4-aminobutyrate aminotransferase (Nocardioides albus), 445 residues
Amino acid sequence: MTELSTLEQSRLLRTPLPGPRSQELMARKVAAVSQGVATTMPVFAARAAGGIVEDIDGNRFIDLGSGIAVTTVGSSAARVVDAVADQVAAFTHTCFMVTPYEGYVAVAEQLARLTPGDHEKRTALFNSGSEAVENAVKIARSFTGKDAVVVFDHAYHGRTNLTMAMTAKNMPYKHGFGPFAGEVYRAPMSYPFRDAPEIDGKLAAARATAQIETQVGAENLAAVVIEPIQGEGGFIVPAPGFLAALAEWCRANDVIFVADEVQSGFGRTGTWFAVEHDGVVPDLVVSAKGIAGGLPLAAVTGRADVMDAVHPGGLGGTYGGNPLACAAALAVIETIEAEDMLARARQIEERLLGRLRELQANDPRIGDVRGRGAMIAAEFVDPATGNPDGAVAKAVAAYAHSQGVITLTCGTWGNVIRFLPPLSISDELLDDALDVLTAGLEQVS
Ligand SMILES: *Cc1c(COP(=O)(O)O)cnc(C)c1O
């Protein structure tokens, strides 16, 4: 694709970081933007493509973040750029609820094809992951006539009032922002690295459903909402059988099983949706982040009878399913299929897991290496106690930043470094980034 030829695919530090132009802009940012909106990197972007983000001082960074799992097909994928340019020239907005357009319908058709299960499905489109999660809850309540929602330890579902209640971690997401929405209950997650070894997927599910039955009651429960691989919570991959047993319990108890695939979905883990690895067919699937190559789009897709339980006019929003975002989403799907990017995600998994496990074998601070596809993480611990060590993760990430590698941390204790490269990244850039990480681990010891 043309994008790669225009931006050199190599890491380059031309100035000390941050460079003079970024320093100038950061001073303007501090004076104009709420400090509540913080940044991981101190540099300002000018261009991005393939696996590189170039800043306004000409420094080139290896992108292991994809703008938090968004630019899965790359930050300026040719098909996405062209499709959005064509659409912007035709019209930017009519509001689908006023004068509908084909792009919205076409995205809904594609989501019916790509989400798990071959039952009849419907979709509704929104602007953000949080908004879509909220709407999945509204839809589940409308269908079941019940109120309660169950979420899990370490969960992240967003920053709006209802989704803050659903999110587990206080700082920085909830602190000082309450009171929160009611009827949200938390159940224990399957966390193989931290669970006792005998807690397999089935037992972890039984532990959760027993607590739900005693503390909530299935007769009050509208939905169980779960990330098939937890994102902000630490890239926690539940034990095999956990998701299937939960989904089975939901089916037996007239509870809607909602897979929040905002981070794990849309090709990132080597399948279209992460639940496919567990052979689970959710009632509702929530998509966002990777769905539209960086344009704001989110979706709830699922069983036609559930989605159509809502009265006409009950779902919507001014911008939901904006025509530019829909054009981008269709181009993202075409790109993933034409360039066999699901296979690329599996290659990236092999490369990242291989290198990280080599590092782990010689470094007891790396307690766990896990993940699927281009959603891989290393969890750092104190070797003496096994307790989470956020300081090491933070120091290694800071070293990577200083050397021109964009990495993100996550986890309830901030002790996980996550790898979320765009699927358009080259092997050379991945290897270079891992060399930097290796040097960072030596530096920090
Ligand atoms: C990011 C995220 C959200 C929230 O999406 P926004 O677009 O930031 O509102 C919800 N769920 C999961 C799993 C996420 O990773």
